[in-house]
Structures are given as C-alpha cells and as structure tokens.
Amino acid sequence: MAEISLITITDVQGYRRVDPKFDVTRFNTFVMEAQRTNLRGLFGDALYYAFMSDTRISGIYKELLDGKTYTYNNETIMFYGLKPALCYWWLAIAAREGDLFLSGYGAIQYTNNPQQNFESSKEKERIAVGYIQTAQGYADDIVKFLDENASIYSLWKNNEEVNSINFVSFRL
Q1: Is 164 a member of any domain?
Q2: Contacting residues for 77 by C-beta, under 8 A, at least 6 apart
Q3: Among 72, 81, 141, 157, which one is least packed by beta carbons within 10 Å?
Q4: How many domains does the chain have?
Q5: What does each C-alpha distance from 85 to 4, 12, 111 come to in angstroms?
Q6: Where are the beta strands (DSSP E) in the chain?
Q7: β partners of residue 70
Q8: What is the pTM of this model?
Q9: 5 in a domain, yes or no?
Q10: Does the residue 139 lie in any domain?
Q11: CA distances in angstroms from 57 to 32, 47, 50, 53, 164, listed in the order given
Q12: pLDDT tens per residue across span 102-117
C-alpha cells in the first residue's frame, strides 16, 4: 500500500496561518501521523486500507476526501470531507511538537528559560486541545456521513470498538 499525504500546507492554511516555508519533511511526518493514528482509528482498518490503497483517491473516496452535499431527512447537508479534520489533527500535532506554535496573533518562538518553557508547554497543550476539539466536530460529521452512506461504503463499520479516535493528551 502506497500511503500518500491527503492534505498539503495550503489545505492547512485554509484554517490557520502557517508559514509556507514550514519544513516539508516535518509537515509530511505530522500528516502521516494524523492519518495513521486518527484517520485509521476513525475508519477502522478495513476502510482505512481500502481508502489509502486507492492512490488515485477517486470515485466514492474522492467524495469522502473532498466532501459533498447530500440529503438527510429532506434537508440538504454540506459534508466538508476529511480535510478539515486532518488539518486540525495536524495543527494539534504541530502545536505540541513544533518549535513554534500558532496563536491568534501569529507564530511564537520559544526561548531557553526553563520557567518560560514550562508556561509555554502549558499554553501549547491548551492550544492543541482546542484543535483536537475542533477536529472532533469534523470527525463527528464524517461518522454521520458514513452512517448515511453505509451502503456505498460497505467497509464502514460504525461501532465504538472499531472506530475510536485515541489522541493522547497530557497535562502539566
């Protein structure tokens, strides 16, 4: 199975400001971690591997990735696809593990002062938790979409044992 990055830095920039010169290798590492951990946990193994094996990401998988409108209870619902959840999962990882974190007023560079580093790590975690909460909202929409289209996505099994998102959080 050839894994591909499902999002780009441009996709993330649609949600938060990120330096376009962000290290590409590091960006892809964070994307792969979000995909392998969070997306696989959400989809379950069978759907995840089928999705990632379709290197063209076409047909029904393209709709799952990019989103679409669909009808539910005679109402038109806008499904935004996987990208928003992946972007916020990426932001959470980047906030926790990056040298910079993104705040409402831009990127902040940390210093070597131990007290400042302790305060900074608490702030980084607070920001990461916010991103995770936003990603969870999008993940809930993904589950709703897959439930409504279970006949199309036959590998989707909606039970909490198979599809669970376990994003490790830590407190200081």
Answers
A1: no
A2: 69, 70, 71
A3: 72
A4: 1
A5: 16, 10, 31
A6: 68-72, 75-79, 100-103, 106-109
A7: 77
A8: 0.80
A9: no
A10: yes
A11: 16, 13, 10, 8, 23
A12: 555 555 555 555 555 5
